[in-house]
Design a protein that fits this description.
Radius of gyration: 26 Å
Strand order of the largest sheet: 2-3-4-1-5
Shape: elongated
């Protein structure tokens, strides 16, 4: 399998490897995000001792460690205890060539052998000082990783100044998994897989709809219960977390709504949500200029697909006999539309130096034929509305505002879409001097809208169809080499 993406992460690891002294590095991130593949790619053609530390019992873990040592030393090693293991570890670094030592899924090792934390402290402080070694700890359990490395009471505190959080791939990177798909199907695949390499690999094939049906919409689908499996492995009690995710997927997005829906206390809910945010499953959203209007959204593609599509329509999996996908089509199309907004944010971030990006929602005056409708008391009649994407960019000492509409429907976008976006923009900020507008459309644009955009305020209305989106993604990787994944999509 061809390794895709992670150019910046690989460059960072190579720079660390080039240091002529012992170094340490911690790598963490959610399951399936590609931590092991990244380390394996970096380790090519290097002297590497790679430990797989997963296992359900101490005996299994010791057996796996023995296999790693046997392969490294090219002679049979049978470990009986962990102190015996440390002897081999010290022997492994007695070389003139730089040695890379990797503990993959380190939290499993800590769970069964808590003393490993103190033993590694001694190894780092004394044994590694005399050798040219690079020590990498990797783990999916972010809570355990952070407590082992960053808690003041931990023996490894301050021993791992370099800590890399591995996040899902950006759209420009992940679309490379789907060379045989149209740009529309690439967008759809990314909406579900969300930049997680394993899921993109599984969704690849001749027909995307068939892959979705096979993986998700059959009782034995390989990814049908993946979200709950990841949740139960990472977080406990997982059923409480599931209550929160179900609540959010059903439209209860504020803290008060989630508390009321789940029956959990506000303090308890906040702690659970904080953990979901740490895992990049959920994100906080604040509309522009409204600090107290915080809401929550499921941003992980697979979790969003599971809770917004499968869980709300799971009865269809058992009662639909033929072409199950067709039974889910309406729910899936709605899902694509919502996720398309998140993908379009990457286009805005990739083309602009944003200091803030998010959504705006609020009430605006109702208009009929361009005239504000007023009630019997003379006050304007209002309606709730939103703007899909709002971004603030620093430009010559002042803020430019970008307002975007994202249309993932089969209808061609016409002038009315632009006029409505501009009208909503007036409610976001009255001053029009520094506003720019972008309309994303799956199905393209009417000729009248194209002419409208050409004449609009010296090109301050941009139209982006899927072909344009795909060309941007290709050029972006060629020019930059990677996506600035440190920049948050939700602020």
């Amino acid at each position: 399998m061809v390794f895709i993406g992670r150019r910046r992460e690989l460059r960072k690891l190579e720079n660390l490897y080039s240091v002529k002294e012992s170094v340490t590095c911690a790598i963490y991130g959610r399951r399936r995000v590609g931590k092991t593949s990244l380390i394996q790619e970096f380790s090519r053609n290097k002297r590497v001792l790679f430990f797989t530390t997963t296992g359900s019992t101490k005996e299994v873990i010791l057996y796996n460690l023995s296999l790693s040592l046997t392969k490294f030393f090219e002679e049979e090693v049978k470990l009986t205890d962990f102190f015996d293991f440390m002897k081999f570890l010290r022997a492994a670094i007695q070389s003139d060539e730089k040695t890379v030592i990797v503990f993959d899924e380190f939290p499993f090792l800590v769970k069964e052998f808590p003393d490993i934390v103190a033993l590694l402290q001694v190894f780092i402080d004394h044994d590694m000082k005399e050798s040219d070694v690079m020590l990498i700890l990797s783990g999916s359990s972010m809570g355990t990783m952070k407590s082992c490395l960053n808690d003041g009471d931990s023996p490894l505190f301050m021993r791992f100044p370099v800590q890399m959080k591995i996040t899902p791939l950006s759209y420009p990177e992940a679309r490379l998994f789907h060379e045989g798909y149209s740009e529309e199907d690439r967008v759809k695949a990314y909406a579900i897989a969300g930049g997680v390499p394993m899921y993109h690999n599984l969704l690849n094939g001749k027909n995307l709809e068939e892959r979705i049906e096979d993986l998700f919409l059959t009782p034995s689908g390989l990814l049908g219960s993946e979200a709950t499996n990841v949740l139960s492995l990472e977080l406990k009690p997982w059923d409480s977390y599931e209550k929160i995710l179900l609540s959010i997927s059903n439209g209860n997005k504020t803290m008060d709504e989630i508390v009321q829906m789940t029956g959990l206390s506000k303090t308890y809910c906040q702690g659970l949500i904080d953990n979901l945010v740490m895992l990049d499953v959920v994100a906080e959203e604040l509309p522009l200029g409204r600090v107290r209007k915080k809401s929550y959204k499921i941003i992980d593609g697979l979790f969003s697909f599971y809770y917004n599509v499968i869980m709300r329509n799971e009865v269809l999996i058992t009662i639909s006999q033929n072409n199950v996908f067709e039974s889910f089509r309406r729910a899936i199309d709605t899902f694509y539309g919502r996720r398309f907004e998140d993908i379009c944010r990457q286009y805005i971030l990739g083309n602009n130096a944003c200091r803030w990006i998010g959504r705006w929602w609020g009430s605006v005056p109702v208009r009929q034929n361009g005239i504000i409708v007023r009630g019997e008391d003379g006050r304007p009649v209002t309606e709730n509305t939103d703007v899909d994407i709002v971004a603030l960019t620093a430009n010559d000492g002042h803020d430019d505002m970008i307002l975007c509409e994202c249309k993932f429907t089969q209808r061609i976008a016409d002038v009315r879409v632009a006029e409505e976006l501009i009208r909503r923009g007036e409610s976001v900020r009255k001053d029009d001097r520094n506003k720019r507008y972008v309309i994303f459309s799956r199905s393209g644009f009417a000729d009248s809208l194209v002419r409208y955009a050409e004449d609009f305020r010296n090109g301050r209305l941009e139209l982006v169809d899927l072909e344009t989106f795909g060309k941007w993604a290709e050029n972006f990787l060629k020019e930059s080499g990677c996506f600035d994944i440190d920049y948050p999509f939700y602020l």
